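Subject: for your reference before the review

Hello V.,

The reviewers asked for a structural picture of the protein, and I figured it would be easier to keep everything in one thread rather than splitting it across files. Below is the amino acid sequence we used in the manuscript, unchanged from the supplementary table.
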Amino acid sequence: MTSRRGFLSANAAAMAALTSVKVRAAKTSSTGFPYTEFEALIRRRDFRDMTKDVLPTPCMIVDQAIFERNVKTMAERTKALGIDVRPHVKIHKSVDVAKLQMAHGAIGLTCATIAEAELMSGAGLKNVMWTKQPASRNAIERAVALSKKDPTFSFVVDDPLVVDWIEQAAEAENARLKMLVSVYAGLSRQGIENGQPALELAQKVASSKRMKFDGIMAYSGFASHTHGWQKRREQSAKDMAQARETVELCKKSGLPVNIFTGGSTGTYNIDHENGLTELEAGSYVFMDTAYFAVGGKDNDATYTDFGGALTILTTVDSKRHPNQVTIDYGNKAGVRATDAVKGMPWLEVATQGAEYGLLKWKDGSSEPKLGDRLEIYCTTLDNSTNYYDRYYVAQGDRIVDVWPIMGRSGAAQR
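And here is what came back from the structure prediction:
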């Protein structure tokens, strides 16, 4: 496991290369901002005079220009490589983000939970795929219900017993289902053994009157964050080798494999070599410090294919001790020691408690002032997003939109 010091060292070049940010200090106005109307203004989509200065902190900021450039870059590069994109929404949990991804050519969406799938499908977005096997009554019945409501919805299985349970539920509801078989690709969290076990499961699905076998899913999670592009390429090829053989075995047995899905942001320009027909990449839309550190094809030290579009806006609340300040980005907001301050890579991030974070620096470094507002890149997007209710979309300092996140204010059934 990478040490904190090693992680930060690997990120130093990346942080220095990222766009600098203008530090904003606390200020007041003779007219004041109508904070009592803040939520009403957002509901009316009236963002006049709404800037970063007036936002409650900590909060999530999306740089609109960088975000849109990331989406466009992924769409253009994968098209040139001849592989489709089915972006993973667990990164953003946002209908607004998903719609823009679809507008740029995504063939569908990938979801980690049934609630995400229900949200995206309910918003009118098609070809939603759930990558986790339903094994509870709640999950099975919701998957069947969504399949009946949206025939383009699909999900995965890795166990014949679960197939039996699902078939019973589908029979009771007179539903037809689209399903994929999840196979092992290096991560032990799920995936049936490749070869004959996977083939037999696919045949079981295909033989059901209630199910359609749609393809194979193989997610090589270890490859996604392997440092160095060439090493990542080798790891992905190794992890995907048996899954490729399983696909060929299915085809030889007469089963049509319409989809061979997997991949990640880290392997987006690699996995077309491994036979995938589509990518489940997600982090590219925003990026985080964990991905900045893995290195790219053209830069082994820093991953610069996609820019850092998402930050946590935080306020310096106290400055009473040498070489440190207290910020309001604490444990409850997802602070991590491996986060990085935008434009100020010499600042070290630490935690001080539930509502308190810490920034430290060495003598001689430029230091934040009381009341300053800083932006911080988070370490792991899907973890951090789960703490917040909305994204404030920014053009420079101006807020131009607010996008809801399916988080604490989202569906009660996650």
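For the response letter, the relevant points are probably these. DSSP finds twelve helices and 17 strands in the chain. The first strand starts at residue 59 and ends at 63.

Happy to draft the paragraph if you're swamped.

O.
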